[in-house]
Each structure stands twice: as structure tokens, then as C-alpha cells.
TrEMBL record, chain A:
This is Elongator complex protein 5. Pfam families: Elong_Iki1. GO terms for molecular function: tRNA binding. It comes from Punica granatum. Residues 360-375 have a biased composition (Acidic residues). Residues 331-375 are annotated as: Disordered. It comes from the Eukaryota. The lineage of its organism: Eukaryota, Viridiplantae, Streptophyta, Embryophyta, Tracheophyta.
Automatic annotation (TrEMBL), chain B:
The lineage of its organism: Eukaryota, Viridiplantae, Streptophyta, Embryophyta, Tracheophyta. Pathway: tRNA modification; 5-methoxycarbonylmethyl-2-thiouridine-tRNA biosynthesis. GO terms for biological process: tRNA wobble uridine modification. Belongs to the ELP6 family. It comes from Punica granatum. One of its GO terms (cellular component) is elongator holoenzyme complex. This is Uncharacterized protein.
Amino acid sequence: MADSICRTLRDGGLEGEHAPALTIKDRISSPLGLDVFNHVLAQLSSFILAGKSQSRGLVLVALTRSPSFYLELLKSGGVQLNSAQKWIHILDCYSDPLGWKDNPSRHEKANTATDENPGTVALFRDVKDANKLFCSVSELGKELLGPIKGRFSVAIDSVSEMLRHASLTSVASFISKLRSHDQVSSIFWLLHSDLHEAKIAAVFDYISSMIASLEPMIHPSNGERLSSENRSLRNENLSRGNFSVRFKRRNGRVRQMCEEISVEQSGIKFTPVSSDGQAIGGGPLPKVQFNLELSEKEQMDRASVVLPFEHQGNGKPIQIYDGRRSLADTRTNTVHVPTEASEAADPRKGEIIYLRDSDDERPDSDEDPDDDLDI
Amino acid sequence: MDLHRPWNLLDQALGLDEHGGSQPLRGKVVLIEDCVKTSGGFVLHHLVKRSLSPDSPPLSNALVFIAFSQPFSHYDRVLRKLGCNLAAQKENKRLVFFDMLMFQCPGENGEKVVETGLASLYRKVQDAVNSLVAEERNCITIVVDDISLMEVAANGCSDEVLSFLHYCHTLTSELGCTLIALNHGDVYFSHDGSTTLLRMEYLANILVRAEPLATGSAVDVHGQLTISWKGIPERQGISRSQVHNFHFRVKENSAEYFYPGTCS
């Protein structure tokens, strides 16, 4: 499922449609959002490098981690950075988001840092201005593509950080402008949902076509904070979580899927939800101590029991009134049955003949057979 | 019994026992969260001592202390009892102490001037760090002793405080500094949607939480510490637990750390 997210981002958007957009949502009780973001970033980068994707390049807006962190990450993930300037540009909103560092010596440093990968990192020093940010992103994208006609992808490492500096409307318009930009192939961003009101998270849910949300495996019982008694649960939640994705199709269909995510030293792993997880979550019956369902063997045993009031097994045809027979048949039956009975049985003895209504009703049903009588 | 192994449970939980010194915390942000009932100050003292301790590699470590809650003389007295002479370290230029007790950002809540106040403080810190780097001290720890008092000094502008911490975070990633900050958890318990504490928790790599005992107060146990690492701790060999929990007792010259029920 995580693969299908990456595939959708790889395939990009159609002409005259919005670019596919992915929100990755996490919360402090399941803080794996950055890991998922890194995973998607690495996948998309390798698609771009292999030339398999619609986009020719990637613009990464780094707000919470340094550009060198991302370059290291890509390098450790086996992505070649020799020709990095041809396909990735990082807009560095991390090093100096508010222009506090007006020391000229710092600029020299920033420049020397970028010398290793010339042209890949651009410093941005006014995060409060979302319009300017949009211009910078689209300029970087155009620079990346050069004269070639093509598209690029955009990654924003935390919308939550943007929302701290700028208003909701300006951030939302920044993203929706990028989505409808005709050179943007796909876009994804990270959001810490517990830092914002539900309505703000909903705004970004609406703008995106895929929503990947991370929920803790085990919810804390006492509200937001876990007490130290269940710290083992917290330990679980720090490396594992439920990963559910909502895909919104063009025609309005919404598909929801769920997976289990675990982050290990070797990397990130997605596994289909385990069967016991389904047993806990699924099934319409409430959990009770006694068994309401019959096993297959129990059902067979039950079917083979001959109830005392059914004259089965003594060679005579089993008569079941199914409510659909014609009136004539019933009449012959009713005539026929008593004659047979009178022949077989001792005339001095009485006999009860039970005619079941239909096979639908179990012979030992508790249901009152006469409840339709209006007495 | 600890003579052969000078590392206690807190050091183990923070990974300080492996390489010695504060090397494992390089580039990390440690957030200490305490409450009125259980002060986390002793954790801060311990980390200050560790980051200046002479047995860490070739004396390349230094400390930048931004004090909002206590003056230098206080820390000097406390650390001396723990076996660390701050005054001498200051003379050796291994400690830069910013006394911010009387610091007040100019201007009212929400005004631009607040930002300039904290921005100038950051520039001072940055200059201090740069000059330490020039002296080839490349293992620098930055300590902020009370975030909530910093917020008071900033006239309640928590956004600016977060920006300040973000800028300190840039020092951790660019120069490999360690950022250690103490904050009070219960100051932020409110329903008005304040997310300052949560934002700080997102920023931190390691969260040290000091809480009273769940079972009520006891004579010989002063509280419990929960240390949680975000992400997999970067260590060689066997992977370690990401969450550690143990009890502590603060004594005059040190603190004792032990697992629940193993108090001697």
C-alpha cells in the first residue's frame, strides 16, 4: 500500500488535473511521520533517477531538518548524488528561517557548504512570506527543468512548521497553487496533526488526494499521556504503528486501507494487518464470554439429530410445507397423510404429525410457530 | 558497588556509557520535562557535570550555559558538591555563562521587538559557539535552564521562544552541538490549545521526564525518570530499548538511580 502511494506520486497528474497530493499525518504518540516522509522521498528520488517517473526533478522545502541531513539520507539509501544538481534542489528554510543570522561570516559558511553539491541548496530567509516562498519554489523547479519541457515534484517536510510562521489561509493557498501549477507533477508534505485544531487538519485533508495517517498501535487509556506503568506500550508505539491510507479517486470514490508499520535499524517495513488484529477489530458480534457461533462440526452434528416429533427415518417421505405448493397439492397431502397414518398406527393410539413450515426454520428453533396467528 | 562502573542508570539510558563523554549526544536535543512535585534540576546538573567531565575525549568539550532561573553562584555551589568546579572551567574558557536572570525583551506581546530581543541573544550564543569552535573545542553543549522563564522574559511570546530553540537546533546539526533544555510540563496543562510543549517534544530527540511516583510519595524514593528516545538510538551492536524507566533518590552529593523495588 505504501508502494501504491509512491506509484501514484511517480505517475503524476494528467494534463488539466491537479497534481496528486499526499498528506502524511502523525502525532506525538506515534511519531513516525518523518520516517514515512523519508521513505517516500527516497522512493520518489530513485524513481526520478531511474527516469521512471513523470517528474524530472524534485524540489524539497526543508523546514525542520537541515539540507545536509537529507543529502546524507539519500546517500545512505543508495541514491547517487553525483549529478544531484540535475534532479534535486533543496530550498533551505531550516538554517535561517527568520533572517536572524545577519552575520556575513555565516553566509560564507553556507556557501562553502553548498560547494560540494553546487546548486543543490538555496537559502531562504523569510518563511513568514508564503507568496515569496511559492515564487522561490517555482523558480527552483524551472531552474531544475531548464529548457526541457517536463514536470517536477515538491516535498515539504513540515507544514506544521510553516503554520507557525504564516497564517492558515496563506499556507493553504501556497499548497493549492503548487497543486494546480502546470509544471508540478506531484506534491507531498508532513503534518503533525496534534499540533493543530481538527479543522486545520481537515483543510489539508481536503487539499490532498491521499492521506496517510499514523496512529499508535495501542491507544493510551488515560487520555493523551501514558503513565509509566504502560511504558512498554509506549516503547511499542515509538517504533510501530498503524498506517492507514485514504485514497480519493477522481470520480469521488474513497478507498481506505490499513497496514502495520514498523521502523527498525534496517529501515522501514510495511506489513498487512495481522489476523488477530482483524479479529479484534472486525466481526459484528460483541465480545462475550460464551460462544454464539457454531463450528462446522457442531453444525453437522446438530443437523444429524432426529427430533422426536419428526417422523423421519421410518421409510416415509419427509413432508415439508414450504408455503409455495398449490392448494390442490396441499389438499391431497392433507387427505393423504391421515390415511397413511391411520393405516400404520394403532387406531386406538393418538398421533401427532408435525409438519415443518420450511427448511429455513431450524427444527429446534425457539421461535413460536404460531406467532403469526391472530388470536 | 559502583566504583568499578562509574556509569549509572541515567548514563546508560542516555548512552553515555559507551564512548565516554557526551559524544553519543552529539547533534541531539535533550528535553528534560519536570513538574512542581518532582524537580528535574538534578538531571540538568548531572548532564552539565558529564559534559564538562575531564575523562571525556581530549578536552575538546565545552559548555554554553544560558541561565534564566538561577545565578552562576548557585550552579557553582551545586556542581562543586558533585565534584565539578565551574569557576575553574570558566577561567579555562570551557564554560560560557549567560546570566539572563534580569533579561526582558523590549516591547509588548506580539510586537516585532520581542523577536529582536531573542534574536540578539541567539547571535550572542552563536558568537560564543563560533569562538569555541575556533579554539578547536568541537564538542559543545548548549544548556537552557528554564524554557518557561524564557517565555516570561519574551513577554509570553512562545512562538519566538520556539524560533530561538529552532536556531539552537541549527547549531546542533551544523556544528554537532548538543542542546539540553529544561522545561516544566505542568505549566502548559491547559485546554486553550497551546501546543508549545508538544512542539518542543517534536523538536527533541530524547525526552527525559521526571515524575512523582505513581503510588504516592515515599521516604527513600523521590520520584521516577522516564527516558524515551525518538527513533532508533544510533549505537553499535545490539539494539537497545527506546524507553527506560527507573526510580531515583536525590542525595546531598549525588543522586541514586535504581529499578523499581531494588532500592537498597
